[in-house]
Amino acid sequence: MYFSSNIKFLRKRRGRTQDDVAFSLKMFRSTLSGYENNVAKPSVEVLLAFSEYFRIAVDTLIKIDLAGLPESQVIQLERGYDVYIKGSSMRILATTVDTKNEENIELVSEKAKAGYTSGFADPEYIKILPAFKLPFLSKERKYRTFQISGDSMLPIPDKSWVTGEYVENWQYIKDGQPYIVLTLDEGIVFKVVENKIEKDGKLGLHSLNTIYDPYEIAIKDVKEVWKFVNYISSEIPEANMEKDELVTEIKALRKEVKAIQMKLEI
Fold this sequence. Notes:
By secondary structure, this protein is an alpha+beta fold. The protein has a domain at about 5-70: lambda repressor-like DNA-binding domains (434 Repressor (Amino-terminal Domain)), CATH 1.10.260. The chain is built from ten helices and nine strands. It has helices at about 5-15, 20-25, 30-35, 45-55, 60-65, 70-80, 115-120, 125, 195-200, 240-265, and strands spanning about 105-110, 130, 145, 160-165, 175-185, 185-195, 200-205, 215-220, 220-230. A hairpin with a 3-residue loop joins strand 5 and strand 6 (about 185-195). The longest helix has 25 residues, at about 240-265. The chain is elongated and about 95 Å long. The mean pLDDT is about 85.
């Protein structure tokens, strides 16, 4: 049980003294010290009081070693994205950090995709992935870059490197936005997503390339979701000829309509 170390960890992150927290929770400082040093066992009422004070679920305070989590995940918990409160399963992301304890961006190449599908939750596997930094991205969020293949997301070219931000709470997946989705059956897919979790327990996946039909996957088969942030490619996207031709036709149609209007006014 991690309760004692967690409340001490959270107190220090907030810059609070034992006197500050004890006063807020209406208890003696010596009582709080006993909890932090694991010499006193909290009652259910005390657990609920700490949960409300730190705005973190009791299950999280007891079962998860918060000091062992990456900074990005601790920040998510502090912002209220606690899956225990929302009744979901806890997802602890395997990740790597640099010498300053700041999150790396791991790189999952085309060749590494098969290994990632089975090793995504294994810290030892994640450690062997190449890592880098993008200085314009937030240090408070977790990112990972995946190499995509195929033409289903054109005009984003084949073999592009797509960076995504880790999504802890899947209820916040937004309709019509692109995401990288990991399932054990299909592996890594990059699609525009339709959130059907509440209604059907599914995600609808759509390609930018309209020759590919949309399809659905059950949310129980999803292992990770990453929100699209940017992509890097050595190729210039091809011009969208269909769109250009449509614009030309619309302009020509407008000219014809205007000409008819002018004749009617004469």
